[in-house]
């Protein structure tokens, strides 16, 4: 039995199919340079034959594209068309682009804009800074559970206590991300984030790669997005972190105001 039939995949057969298709598309999206069937099956929690069957069916409808010469799968043109139609309602990337570019320019680090999607964050924008040594932990389309990368920690820390407790009850992040993501460790980092206003990820994903993030809020005051910076450890010294944090908070505040202001369309 495929692993996807457990957890969120439980329920009526139709619900299971929708869950599997969504998992396959997300798995393909994680590989901008193309995903093998095996990589998709692992990421989606499916057997290889099931993953291939779904990928082929999606290709017939234009939702995936197959490079048969290299055996790689890509997101298909139909997703682009649907995404273009959804952009008017959901796309905030253009509003965030100037903040991301400014952060990269002012700090020299790689800057990012991420959106919350359920229990995850998805990176929407990346801008390289001038510092020649970079971290490639985060890139467009990359997903992390809330509380893992600095963007997700910033968002999680600004949820109310009941939401945080419910998330930690179901997430069990230490199973995949190690003891540094135990409930107690996360609680400590949430407290530090709330005190400082910004989140710090001290190389918990990749050795030597640090990150900092600040939440961006929607019109209801809920943390819906985040701005973040990543770079090598030497660039995130204790004496520099307050300045990086101030820049993140300034740009997050400016972006929050911009996203709350309706912009008439021409």
Low-confidence stretches: 1-9
**Quaternary status:** single chain
How far is the N terminus from the C terminus? 52 Å
CATH topology of the largest domain: Beta-Lactamase
The main β sheet shows up as: 6 strands, antiparallel
Number of domains: 2
Q: What is the CATH domain class of the largest domain?
A: Alpha Beta
Report the radius of gyration as a whole number of Å: 19 Å
What is the molecular shape?
A: globular
Strand arrangement, major sheet: 5-4-3-8-7-6
CATH homologous superfamily heading of the largest domain: GAF domain
Can you give the mean pLDDT?
Answer: 88
Report the total helices.
10
Number of strands: 8
In N-to-C order, the SSE pattern is HHHEEHHEEEHHHHEEEH
Structural class: alpha+beta
CATH architecture descriptor name of the largest domain: 2-Layer Sandwich
The portion of residues forming beta strands comes to 15-25%
Residues in helices, as a percent range:
40-55%
Protein name: IclR family transcriptional regulator
Domain HTH iclR-type: 15-77
Domain IclR-ED: 78-261
InterPro entries: GAF-like_dom_sf, HTH_MetabolicPath_Reg, Tscrpt_reg_IclR_C, Tscrpt_reg_IclR_N, WH-like_DNA-bd_sf, WH_DNA-bd_sf
Structure description:
Keywords: DNA-binding, Transcription, Transcription regulation. This is IclR family transcriptional regulator. The longest helix has 20 residues, at 241-260. A hairpin with a 5-residue loop joins strand 7 (209-217) and strand 8. The radius of gyration is 19 Å and the shape is globular. It has helices at 13-29, 37-44, 48-60, 77-90, 93-107, 150-157, 161-171, 174-177, 183-196, 241-260, and strands at 64-67, 72-75, 110-117, 120-127, 143-145, 199-201, 209-217, 223-232. The model is unreliable at 1-9 (pLDDT under 50). 47% of the residues lie in helices and 18% in strands. It has 266 residues and is α+β, with helices and mostly antiparallel strands. The strands form two sheets. Strands 5-4-3-8-7-6 form a six-stranded antiparallel β-sheet, sandwiched between helices. Strands 1-2 form a two-stranded antiparallel sheet.
